[in-house]
Amino acid sequence: MIDLYTWATPNGRKVSIMLEEVGLPYRVHPVDITKGQQFAPEFLAISPNNKIPAIADQEGPGGKPFTLFESGAILIYLAEKSGRLLPSAPAVRYQVLQWLMWQMGGFGPMLGQAHHFRKFAPEPVPYAIDRYTKETARLYGVLDKQLAQGDYVAGDYSIADIAIYPWTQRADWQGIDLESFPNVVRWRERMAARPAVAKGMAVPT
Fold first, then answer.
1. Helix (H, G, I), strand (E, B) or coil at 166
2. Exposed, middle or buried, 81 (CB in 10 Å: 0-12/13-18/19+)?
3. Which of 18, 92, 124, 197 is positioned for an S-S bond with 87, CB 3.0–4.6 A?
4. Which helix (H) or strand (E) holds 4?
5. What is the pLDDT of residue 56?
């Protein structure tokens, strides 16, 4: 059994989608970040960076309990544990991993900054709004160009798609007109049609 500590954010939803896709049994422990629950000592023991998501696998490596934080690391761990959604052949494996790292290092952080300054900043900061909105649009362009080459981001459906998809659900917060990125639109429709994606996006309820 895997204990999932999460909240309804793009990073949190990556892991619930993955767990649904690979069919590993899990139970959800909501961590309400709007109430500061991520700073509780019992959560910090699992995720010392006070960020969701985190997991506790009761049957981890060697059959022993194992905890893990950082959504990208969790996706790789679950892929290797289940033997799914991360190819073993080196060339395609690293294609998937590079797009996972693209999401972790660019697409997620930059989109997060865009919707923070556009929606949540206590007062407008025009420079920040302009900077992060433009970078967000550039990154959507990169994704759209990549998706022109196939149905999924890195060949077959993989953890790269799972990592990227939840972040595209808040395009309006990011100042993005998705109709400008038709390949992204088609990919989003393809993703949304997957039952595991729909279930994972609803966690926690």
1. helix
2. middle
3. 92
4. strand 2-6
5. 98
